[in-house]
Amino acid sequence: MNNLFTIDCGEIFLREFRIEDVESIYEITSQPEVYEFLPDWRSTREQRLNWVSNYEIPSNKEFLLAVPNIGSQNYLKLGIVLKETGEFIGFCNTGIKEELKEPNREIAYAISKHYRNRGYITKAVKGLITYLFENTDVEQLNTVFLPRNVSSSKVSQKCGFRFNGDIEIEDQTHYHYTLTKEDWKNINSH
Length: 190
What we know:
Shape: globular
Structural class: alpha+beta
Oligomer: single chain
Mean pLDDT: 92
Radius of gyration: 16 Å
Number of domains: 1
CATH class: Alpha Beta
Strand content: 25-35%
Order of helices and strands: EEHHHEEEHEHEEH
Largest sheet: 5 strands, antiparallel
């Protein structure tokens, strides 16, 4: 895979973004089911190419070079890829969520409408959580989503996150869930 960073998650794997993913990312983030919850990801093809080339790929490299001491390293953005076909079907990312108090490392994700309700996001999130808690200095992870995003609520709970209350972001109430490394260890020791 051209020495790209990957995380094996069973039927899928996570791998760092590459230029060839631009069209897939553009198509996924143009789906109303995705941009309803991630409006900042909506873009033109040209913007997406610029972001992947000049920001996301370099940011991924910086993040991976900083491991294990990622501290305030910004983002690691990983594509969700079907092992069987190599198809890019979504993304699972970690980054600093400015609107949260520290520790404010977030996990965010999206999947194509064509691959929903198959457990892929839960596998991807669990894979990224495991990587972060086993290989970096991260002690707590957060997820933040709109209350109407029932799918994200289910994923968060399946991955061990606990409800931490409501938070206002851009004049909208969001649910805030957290998962500590200690809780994750306890969940996974059984």
